[in-house]
Amino acid sequence: MRDLSAAIRTIPDFPAPGIQFRDITTLLLDGAAFGACIEQLAAVVGEDFNLVAGIEARGFVFAAALAHSLGKGVLLLRKRNKLPGATLGVNYALEYGQDRIEMHADAVAPGTRVLLVDDLIATGGTAKAGAALIRQAGGVVVRAAFVIDLPDLGGADALRADGVEVVALVAFAGH
């Protein structure tokens, strides 16, 4: 198994002093590392789901590649007002305010088993909103998969407390 942490750049003091930003774009630029990442995700997520839900925007990249690899469909979880037609949505708290995540109202039939995917889990707000949105439609969130976990920020634990199994390929201490 390839150590993917070496392909992820750390940018100190971005977007604010004291933050160690984990930049996934360097992994995406490295074809071999990106391929290994998708293979490793496929190996840990299983196949007991029908759809792979990607959270806008970087989550789309990993969800689409993983879904293709496993022969599954892709569900897009988008920011507010980005989807045409009828939508379902969930508001969630940000550090200063609120945001909203939406999906097409007819995208998930009741009982559909869904894997939730994003590039990184930090505080877990967006991932918890994604899980709530899938459940609102009657879907079942089988697990959530991330390339990076920042365990010190508690997002993976918050998602587990919400009843979602969490898997991640790389963990970085700190913020």
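The above is record 1. Record 2 follows with the same two-line structure.
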Amino acid sequence: MINDMVQVTRKDEREANENILRRFNRRVLQSGKLAKAKAMMRFEKAMSKTDRRNKAILRKERKAEKLAKIRLGVR
């Protein structure tokens, strides 16, 4: 895990904070670690067809209940 970290050099005495941030952001983007982290956030485990179907049925039922309440003026 330690080798996976992005190596960033230290701040020079007269270097502006904006330059440090720009250099850090460029190194992070070039390393590809941010893209991998975002891809892992969106990853979903494989789901069986029946589970997907059941979830879709629940979503449709909840949406129908919500629309019915809105039509009646009830929250």
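The radius of gyration is 24 Å.
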